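Subgroup meeting minutes
Present: P.N., E.W., G.H.
Scribe: E.W.

1. P.N. recapped why we're keeping a running log of single-chain structure predictions: easier to compare across weeks, and new members can see raw inputs and outputs side by side.
2. G.H. added today's entry (277 aa).
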Amino acid sequence: MDIVNEILEKEQKKAEKYKPITVEKHLELEIDIGTLLASDTNDLDKKLIKLDKERDAYLQSLSRDNTQLLLNKIWDLPTERIDEAIVVRLPHPTTILPRAKPVPKPKPLTKWQEFAKAKGITNKKKSKLEWDEQLQKWVPLYGFRKAAAEKEKSWLIEVPQNVNPMTDMYEKKANEKSEKVAKNELQRLKNIARARKVKIPRVGLPVTADKASASQLATATSVAKASTASLGKFQNKLPKEKEARGIGVHELIPGKVKKRNLPEVSRKNLKTIQREG
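Output recorded in log:
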């Protein structure tokens, strides 16, 4: 009998460890399985909440019961096995939660995407493998196996007739590939700068002072005419030449300034010099 009692006591202790999966509530929980949200609208026990010793145990028991009800709802859904694991596909959530950040803006289109959209060009799905007639096997379009296949295929490269026979075709091919990669990277950076509306500095020779503006050319023409013996009075005009407005001979000659443009002190000094002269 003692052995039987010991076995019964052990089974009773094990049963006490595992609580039942059935939970009774006065009001059913509002459960949104899509977001794994369970809202308990039942009233709390105010007496147990006020007691410091009983509060934690009461809240833990309440949380355990609500979690059990949520899990029961989840296991009511159809299950499936994926990679030796039983999973459940959750439905779409019904609770609308506010966003912490604004909705992301759509990415701006690149030059090629805008061109394809204007011309109605659609992307066609390509196969990841292609048949190589030379190797007589399927070769991937990219990746390390593609590089290995190219290396196997190009063990010998024929030199074209229009190329120097001493040219290293392997080096030339590598340079062409690096140039192509650099060009693609430059185009990618241009697309990023264009999307962020950043002005890209022009590449090439800097703008020099060799090309003068229209006003500079007009001033140079007037100065050249005034440099003659007649100060440009008898100088012939060029075809379609416009007269320089507001520019006289005295303004063009260095040191020649009209008296009305001089300050009052300079006028007095000029009169004194003329008297003494």
